[in-house]
Amino acid sequence: MANLNVEIGNLKLKNPVMTASGTFGYGEEFADFIDLSRLGGILVKGTTLHHREGNPYPRMAETPAGMLNAVGLQNKGVNYFAETIYPRICTIDTNIIVNVSGSTIEDYIATAEKIAQLEQIPAIELNISCPNVKEGGMAFGTSCKSASTVVKAVRKVYPKTLIVKLSPNVTDIAEIAKAVEAEGADSVSLINTLLGMAINVKTRRPMLSTVTGGLSGACVKPVALRMVWQTCKAVRIPVIGLGGIMNAMDAIEFLLAGATAIQIGTANFIDPQITIKVIDGINAYLEEQGCDDIKDIIGGLIC
């Protein structure tokens, strides 16, 4: 068995396979399907300072080789998470990472401060890229200036590993990555969903209540892979790749492109055991390639 250990800042992962926020609940929902302790990490659903109802229904639609969602960060707020959810999941033997979002910089700061007090949460993923909220979210992640501002503010109050989740809905994602790296981000994760839409031709109405939503699934992988490759060449901090990873070979492509770790999202809805299958598939690939360590293939693209 090859060594699959990787590091994201001070965060040590037993393997590079993590779950993407918003697709895996709080982890406990999948406990009947897989051994959660085998995962490199669990990114829990987006958490905000205050309770959010999310967007009106319908807020999900199937598309060719993917799906659109406009859930809108529905959650009960950081205090509920700390008091109710955290005690239930803090003993899971893997890295529990909280995806933090907000409508204002002050929201991000306050939420990060509260999460920092939770001993068994070693990292946060700062979501500056959600396309499904009217305020905050993607607005912070579409320019170097705004991304730098929010990361700088959170870095001052958050002492643990800080991952910043980037939006693909920009001209040059590598420039955004360099901007947040300069302000103290320990890692960047990309991509969040691509902005898309779908129309019901019979009713002539949008498939989503918000008209547009976030596109994910196999259809976005070529775009995600390209952006991860570009970003890995632009920054020195670890890059976490996600977007359309449906199997082990997809994950290995991201690792070869330079990603230190990966996240699996939409595939969890199709196969709740996909994360374990990807871990096993990476092991099998390394054995086939005669590699003893996952680091032997990270950034191993030949071009």
Automatic annotation (TrEMBL):
It comes from the Bacteria. Pathway: Pyrimidine metabolism; UMP biosynthesis via de novo pathway. CDD domains: DHOD_1B_like. It is an enzyme of class 1 (oxidoreductase). The keyword Metal-binding does not apply. Gene3D superfamilies: Aldolase class I. Its cofactor is FMN. It holds the Pfam family DHO_dh. Keywords: Cytoplasm, Flavoprotein, FMN, Oxidoreductase, Pyrimidine biosynthesis. FMN binds at residues 21, 45-46, 99, 127, 165, 191, 217, 243-244, 265-266. Residues 4-286 form the Dihydroorotate dehydrogenase catalytic domain. Substrate binds at residues 45, 69-73, 127, 192-193. It is found in: Cytoplasm. Its EC number is 1.3.-.-. SUPFAM superfamilies: FMN-linked oxidoreductases. GO terms for biological process: 'de novo' pyrimidine nucleobase biosynthetic process; 'de novo' UMP biosynthetic process. GO terms for molecular function: dihydroorotate dehydrogenase activity. It catalyses: (S)-dihydroorotate + A = orotate + AH2. The active site is at 130 (nucleophile). InterPro entries: Aldolase_TIM, DHO_dehydrogenase, DHOD_1B, Dihydroorotate_DH_1, Dihydroorotate_DH_1_2, Dihydroorotate_DH_cat, Dihydroorotate_DH_CS, Dihydroorotate_DH_I. NCBIfam families: PRK07259.1 (NF005574), pyrD_sub1_fam (TIGR01037). Catalyzes the conversion of dihydroorotate to orotate. Belongs to the dihydroorotate dehydrogenase family. Type 1 subfamily. This is Dihydroorotate dehydrogenase. The gene is pyrD.
